[in-house]
Amino acid sequence: MNILLIDDDEASNAYTEIMLNRSGLLSTLDVFRNGEKALNFVLELIPQQKIDFILLDINMPVMSGHEFLEALHNNQKNIPVVILSTSIIEEDEQEALKYDFVKGYLNKPISLENLQKLL
Fold it and tell me: Sheet of 28-32: strands edge to edge?
């Protein structure tokens, strides 16, 4: 699977990458610590390369996860997204899940079991 990970937390990214490798389903992983750079990557890349799904943090500098989701929606990019967040604010989850392409909302750190259920 070709996965895009968007999260500004390096330690969390390292852990998520380990879990993705353990899942045995990872082909490629592109990591961005900034939603704006990730959005530019997605808009330039597709349709030349397929992204199977995006793992997205909510709270990030420059462009939040919510802003990223809105931009994906406005650009008609229906890439499956799974939110990975430490936020326990119910409104964050409700806001993210209003998009049809958001397939789940998981709290960090992600478990291998939860990851495999989503994949």
Answer: 28-32, 2-6, 53-56, 81-85, 102-107
Whether 20 maps to a domain, the answer reads: yes
Cα–Cα separations (whole angstroms), residue 109 to 17, 36, 43, 54, 61 = 11, 23, 28, 16, 20
19-74 pLDDT, tens digit each: 999 888 888 999 999 999 999 999 987 666 789 999 999 999 899 999 999 999 99
> Residue 86's domain spans which residues?
7-49+56-118
Nearest residue to 12 via CA among 26, 39, 25, 31: 31
The Cα–Cα gap between 80 and 99 comes to 10
pTM (two decimals)? 0.92
Averaged pLDDT, 6-31: 92
What's the CATH number where 89 sits? 3.40.50.2300
